[in-house]
Amino acid sequence: MSPHVQFIMHHTSGKRRVFHAILAILTGVLVMAWPDALYYIVGGYLIATGLIYLVFRAPSFLVAASIVTGVFIFAFPAFIPCFFAFFLLVIGLGTLFTAGFTGLAVIPLLAAVLLILFPEIISIIVAAFLMLYGFTSLFALIQSRKKKKEILEVY
Fold first, then answer.
1. 105 near 92, Cβ under 8 Å?
2. Distance (Å, rounded) from C-alpha 114 to C-alpha 69?
3. Predicted confidence band at 150 (pLDDT cuts at 50, 70, 90)?
4. What is the pLDDT of residues 83-106, one digit of tens each?
């Protein structure tokens, strides 16, 4: 009989999650306030997200997907639903494969499907996604901190 050994390495920066959540919420509010400047706001958000991923050493595919998508949105603003849906699919599938079937994985995938189906209401979908994603990320971070604190108190 052989022993079963499993190594799980999962490290997420709390600072990165906080910065990303606050950036998502602020971007969602800006999109709701100025929907005519959508491609400037979303392009800037994606480039800023890529830089946050870069600074906090996230996987290079996430960095590249964010920055390249942001640049493409600035270059081709008419295709913003397709480009942002691509970014959402990358984020959603990445979260789905790493964290399982959680709310943080379902939200981007659902938003990507809605963007493909209803590209004419992109500002509403993008703003709702960003604010929901930001608040969900903050709540998940707070809950994980509480659980970690409870586990440390038990020991």
1. yes
2. 18
3. low
4. 888 888 888 888 788 766 666 678
